[in-house]
Amino acid sequence: MKVLHSVHPQDFKTYQTGLIRERFLIDKQVQPNQVNCTYTHYDRMIVGFANPVDTELELPNYPNLRAGYFLERREIGIINVAGDGVVIADGQSFEVKKLDCLYLGKGIKSVKFASKNADAPAVFYMLSSPAHAPKPTTLLTHADAVKVTLGSASTANHRTINKYIHLEGIQSCQLVMGLTILHDGSIWNTMPSHVHDRRMEAYFYFDVPQGQKIFHYMGEGNETRHITMDNYDAVVSPPWSIHSGSGTASYSFIWGMAGENLDYTDMDPIAITDLR
Ligand SMILES: O=C(O)C(=O)C[C@H](O)C(=O)CO
Ligand SMILES: [Zn+2]
Description:
Layout: E1 2-4, H1 9-12, H2 17-24, E2 25-26, E3 35-40, E4 46-50, E5 57-58, E6 74-80, E7 85-89, E8 92-96, E9 101-104, E10 111-115, E11 124-130, E12 138-140, E13 146-150, E14 159-165, E15 176-182, E16 188-189, E17 194-195, E18 199-206, E19 214-220, E20 223-229, E21 234-237, E22 244-247, E23 252-259, E24 268-269
Parallel strand pairs: 1-3
Antiparallel strand pairs: 2-21, 3-4, 4-11, 5-10, 6-9, 6-11, 7-8, 7-10, 9-12, 13-14, 14-15, 15-23, 16-22, 17-24, 18-21, 18-23, 19-20, 19-22
This protein binds ligand LADIRMRS and zinc ion.
């Protein structure tokens, strides 16, 4: 499993594009009939992908975990971003359609992934953080996720936030997870931007139209940098970093966090006029 180590904000100021990409970008991980995971040292969050096309896949037990099985001391949130899929947790099958979320808690020994149709396979995006206690297995459909609409067309940031795993939603130990859909013609996410020193965050961009790109902004508010990202790329955001993006077209992304609390609204905003 690939490992990403933590970066100090003072060091980040000297980074150029190549090093920023090496330290934070998680790309080319959605591969047919593969499960691919990256271990980050940001709150020990694991960022994973499963793309079962014509075969069932199993979540492996990586040696990095020194565990009997992947979820022995972890929890996981799984969101499907493509064709209809199935997740089998300790023998129990869950239909996970596009934009549905399945939460599996500490103690689930076996997790398998399958697609309903090999011509339109599922793509499962996963975030897993350490967990101290078992929480109930929960499937939440996109329709039932709590929705908050923010921004406006005139500032090109009209978007709907869908909250799945959070204080008032699916219960977890420390995982918070959901997704944001940009309305047609809007291209800015998380603007005005913010940081939250209490937890890291990971973004996974999807439904980025062919031939388009995301410009993802990072760094302290007074010292920002960007990398460009493609469909199905993920990026980790240290607790000191903003995490905002602008696309050359509308798109969607999954956000997820782990750290001190489960309160989605725990953010320290940065005024647009203060960004450098
Ligand atoms: O569009 C947004 O704004 C977001 O989706 C913000 C993220 O959810 C976030 O950064 C939560 O801390
Ligand atoms: Zn955030």
